[in-house]
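Try this one yourself first.
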């Protein structure tokens, strides 16, 4: 069997384990949905020169946050837990490529993330009248931003899982940078163009800001561009930054990933 087929088989195991943990399933899907519903209900008003409401502006950003949460945070916690309870050590002793395990984990979060995005889109359409992309090109934009975002955040989650000393500390280790970057990337702030310059500069370094901007370009009309940092969706720069983080995340995985906990080293 090839590494890819072994990884696909591992993804099936991971998915079955995920759906059996009902509390993890509920928390994974409920958190972004609750945040979107609450924040969208608090925001009101229409932007000058555009039919876009504040709640509609928030939905694509929350989709980006949901992607990052499911991939970066959950993947990092999951791998730290597998390392702490000896799962990684046992898998290391099997005659299967180590890459198969990582492929299985990434396929797991890709499937879960797709389901979560569908839920957030449903909330956006039903509660906030978010218009769906009106052309094939906008759907394609949504597609490539989603794929690059999932890959980049997944690889970063795999790499950063090494920072957790144990399963107990993994949630704090993974959630802290996620929450900080969410604020720096303007996820919970509308419009993004009104953020302080220093916040915009820092947020522009990381993939979450570009994922949110890419999703907004797929769902919102061009009339909202005056509310952005620049009056352009910057698709070329978005693709470049996300692709760079995919490569950087892979390099970090190769240098940081550990099969054993620090206590056993």
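Now uncover the answer:
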């Amino acid at each position: 069997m090839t590494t890819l087929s072994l990884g696909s088989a591992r993804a099936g195991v991971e998915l079955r384990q995920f759906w059996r943990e009902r509390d993890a399933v509920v928390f994974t899907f409920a958190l972004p949905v609750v945040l979107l519903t609450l924040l969208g209900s608090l925001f009101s008003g229409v932007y000058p020169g555009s039919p876009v409401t504040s709640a509609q502006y928030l939905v694509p950003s929350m989709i980006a946050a949901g992607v990052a949460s499911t991939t970066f945070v959950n993947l990092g916690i999951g791998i730290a837990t597998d390392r702490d309870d000896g799962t990684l050590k046992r898998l290391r002793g099997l005659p299967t490529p180590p890459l198969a395990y990582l492929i299985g984990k990434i396929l797991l979060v890709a499937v879960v993330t797709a389901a979560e995005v569908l839920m957030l889109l449903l909330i956006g359409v039903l509660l906030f009248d978010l218009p769906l992309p009106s052309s094939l090109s906008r759907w394609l934009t949504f597609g490539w931003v989603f794929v690059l975002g999932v890959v980049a955040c997944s690889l970063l989650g795999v790499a950063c899982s090494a920072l957790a000393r144990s399963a107990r500390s993994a949630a704090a280790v993974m959630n802290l940078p996620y929450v900080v970057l969410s604020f720096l990337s303007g996820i919970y702030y509308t419009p993004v163009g009104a953020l302080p310059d220093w916040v915009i500069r820092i947020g522009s370094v990381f993939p979450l800001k570009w994922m949110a901007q890419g999703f907004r370009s797929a769902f919102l009309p061009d009339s909202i561009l005056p509310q952005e940092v620049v009056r352009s969706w910057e698709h070329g720069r978005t693709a470049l930054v996300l692709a760079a983080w995919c490569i950087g995340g892979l390099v970090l995985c190769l240098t940081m990933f550990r099969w054993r906990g620090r206590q056993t080293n």
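Discussion: The mean pLDDT is 88. The chain has one domain: 3-264.
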